[in-house]
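User: My instructor asked us to take a sequence, write out its structure as tokens, and then describe one feature of it. I'm not sure where to start. Here is the sequence I was given:
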Amino acid sequence: MNIIQLLFYFLIIIPSSIVHEYAHGLVADKLGDPTARHAGRLTLNPLAHIDIYGTILLPLFLLFVSGGNFMFAYAKPVPYNPYNLSSRRFGPAMVALAGPASNLILAIIFSLLIKILSFTFLSAAFFQLLSIIVFANVLLAIFNLVPIPPLDGSKILFALLPASTRHFQAQLERSGFIILIIFLFFGFQILTPIVYWVYHLLLSV
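Assistant: Let's start with the prediction itself. The structure tokens for your sequence are:
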């Protein structure tokens, strides 16, 4: 990516993260937990979701240390009370899945927009910017499905595991953030072919 594309990516991944968090709160609210609504987080207003570290400092740091090759950001997690959900076991997984699903839906919408606008005389640069929106949302969806706490994939995994693994789950949650940092720097390349496969699939279908 050139500097303009990187800037656009930065500007896109933040609102995409906000949609991601809003989806968590919306599904939790539909399942009986009004925590996000009462906290003023059931909104798409960026001011309610921006986290100084995850939304601003982290992506700039990753951009710097990667030499402009990698950037990732997250919004302030939307709070919810799993004990208020209509399903104690699968409710948290449904709330967790809502985030990546919202990003995949955004990716599909913009990939369809690219196909529709391909019949017009819009510039190639504009199509590249639209494709960055698709890529950013595919990246958010795939990355958040990794089963490492506090990512959404861990909530989905825990819902599928038997109750006898609660001790393992607790241990994983305690060390999850450290594991996630290690994964970001040393294991993220595992996701790269998956992200690009989904990205190219959406643009080619």
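For the description part of your assignment, you could build on this observation: The mean pLDDT is 89. Try explaining in your own words what that tells you about the chain.
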